Amino acid sequence: MSVLVVGSTAFDSIKTPKGENPRLLGGSASHAAVAASFFAPVKLVGIVGEDFPAEYMKLYAKHKINVDALQKTSGKTFHWSGEYEVNMNNRRTLATELGVIEHFDPVLPDSHRSTPYVLLANISPAIQHQVLDQMKKPKFVVVDTMDLWLNIARPELLKLLKRVDAFVLNDSEARELTEDDNIVTALKKIHALGPKYVIIKKGEHGAMLSSPKGLFISPAFPLEKVVDPTGAGDSFVGGMIGYLASQPGALDAKLRRAMVYGSVVASFCCEDFGLKATTRSTRKAIEKRVAQLEKIARF
Ligand code: AMP
Question: Measured between alpha carbons, how far is 205 from 233 in angstroms, rounded to an integer?
Fold first, then answer.
């Protein structure tokens, strides 16, 4: 089954202790779509400006990502720049130039409206609502977000949480949303806001799922060298939903494994700047790391 991904399609200018790279292909939707493409056909919903290079379009094509709903308009592509501290868990946004994303008004072609798996990757909750409004009875909807929307668009985000199956957020966002430092009780509070499945990402320490079947802890793949963690969260959720879409059977039965696949795709993402390492990776390389992770985590 296929996956529809809406989110930002961006230029990312990134500085980490390992180096500096301007105007890489980035954005939540780019990372998530490439990650999902290892498992299932992907339809990308986004917007870019006239400055968006053909070589980045080729990258989407390499991953067979459907770009029929990727609008190209006059103006500049969304540009995000960020800098990491020596401890790469800490990141500072240096600048956000919205460009064409400011007036993004996504209209889905008919061919996209009955896509069964929907990922509302990080973008404003208003746009996430707008895309969801156009979908016809999706099988599974996941929403991702960031602290910015908790601060400037909380009512829209809370409304959205009542419409989705799963909510993915990181531990600091969970703390901010619930005003609770305890991850276990924070999970309960987030369920009360609507989603049946809640996943809290904890960076290099993996992720925790709370579902009707109880809790699950997914490890992160241990890496010797982290070059740039930008997009790891998007790769995690993209890999996860792609795997879910590719497998038959009940959701609860495949969700744990899907999280492990998401963790592994995220590990590739961290090994080079932007999407470089993710796009170099293969399904075979992913399977190898999943098998390694299975050995490490079994007890
Ligand atoms: P992550 O490292 O998973 O948190 O995601 C980083 C990605 O989020 C980068 O590729 C950015 O382009 C994108 N991003 C940063 N700020 C925003 C924003 N305000 N809206 C949408 N996407 C953003």
Answer: 12
